[in-house]
Amino acid sequence: MIEKCKALLHKYRETVMYLIFGVATTVVSFALYYALLFLGMHYLVAQTLSWIGAVIFAYITNKIWVFESKVRGFLPLVKEFASFVLSRLFSFGVETFLLWLMVDIAAISEGIAKIPVAVLTVILNYITGKLLVFRGEKKQDTTNFKTRT
């Protein structure tokens, strides 16, 4: 049973890691958003600043632990980061538009409106991250190497 669980976890490692760090990124985004609202900031400004913080956090965690990017060197890293930010700009536009629609048009609280919009954002970010940014080679699997005794 344990071996089956390990095999499933290994098979779906990327998705599991994305879910873990997607939740963590969402927590970062929400914490910044609600803190800025609490400080009296307009919800669209709070949205923008929380997005910036979340994107930086997400890039680092996605690069290292989710997609295991092997890109090294200054220019390749700049290119990868720029690609990541551009892919996130798409979901930022969708998220901000839906937030505006729900708050200003549908008269839903800016605190409540952020929740369903975040679900769609996480899905969009996974798709764009996997297909557009971190699509190169992944770290070599070393789990099947046996040690000498």
Distance between the termini: 27 Å
The fraction of residues in strands falls at under 5%
Residue ranges: pLDDT <50 for 5 or more in a row?
137-149
Structural class: mainly alpha
Helix content: over 70%
What about the largest sheet?
none
Average pLDDT across residues? 85
Outline:
globular
Overall number of domains: 1
- How do the SSEs run, as a string of H and E? HHHHH
User: How many helices in DSSP terms?
Assistant: 5
Radius of gyration: 18 Å
Count every beta strand, where a strand is a DSSP E run of 2 or more residues.
0
Describe the structure.
There is one protein chain. This protein is mainly alpha-helical. The protein has one domain. The protein has five helices and no strands. Helix 2 (13-38) runs antiparallel to helix 3 (43-66) and helix 4 (74-105) runs antiparallel to helix 5. It is globular and about 50 Å long. The two termini are 27 Å apart.
Brief descriptors of the model:
5 helices, 149 residues, globular
Topology:
Blueprint: H1 2-11, H2 13-38, H3 43-66, H4 74-105, H5 110-133
Summarize the structure.
The chain has 149 residues and is mostly helical.
